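Sample intake sheet
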Amino acid sequence: MDVFKRFMKASRMRVIPVMLMPVALGALGAYVWDGVFDIWLLLLTLIGSGAAHLFSNMINDLWDYKNGTDEAAKNTADAIGTNSGYLTNGVWSMRTFAAVTWGLFAVAAASGIALALLSGIWAFVFGAMGGLIAYFYVAPPIRFGYRGKGYSEIAILLAFGVLPVLGSYYVQTSTFDYRAILLSLPIGLLTTLILFNHHFLHWQADRAAGKRTLVVVWGERRALQFSRLLLGLAALSLVGAALAGALPAYALVGLITAIPLYLTYGRLQDQNSSRAYLPLMGASVRAANRCGSVLIVCLIIQGLIQ
């Protein structure tokens, strides 16, 4: 049990719902729109995507540690570190950390190959695209997260929205449907918002380490404006998905989950201490989890009553 607890902390498993919910949404879309649902394919997709997400968390820690970003966060007084601390505090050696990281990659790759054999080659393509995004988010030479031009936000929207929803739908049906893309946008944008808002916790350390996030490039005031914009886009995408038939009309109740997050912005100034952003991060995570849960329940209800 102690070993598993250590693994949970090292991989930051507590945030895994942001990957599993889009996968569930894609499979439920196949159930509602096409009357197709294979529980075993869904379980295999959840295992593969979950392992890929945990690999993403750990490979980010590994490269941030190598690039000096985590050490800068540790040594910057106002910064709040968001890594596991296993490398910066010497809990695990880099060799152990890397072995677990690539073990997760192996599980994800094996799941992708199995799904490709069962459902079609595009299942592997979607997984491979997600894996490349996960690796090059902080790894050279691309390093999405270090460029400060919006590449990382686009990458997150794809990796935690479009790819898992569309990929999960494809696994179930071996076909594509534009509604899966519409279905992916609310949860994808909310997850992008989580990743964007977490940069506020340590943006000074990122700047010192040469990590040019949009918060570093724009500054707090403009970055907060963009954060609000992302929340608005997530709400609009939910309305659009309902209007287009990707979601039932009663799924609009999911908009309520954004209210506590919206109110959190009112308690922030143009410039804030890093600790002042902790409520924003917590509200962002809760909004994504609650909205995703509401959409899942609504699709289940729609599938049962239609």
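Comment: The chain has 13 helices and no strands. Residues 104 and 280 are 30 Å apart (CA to CA).
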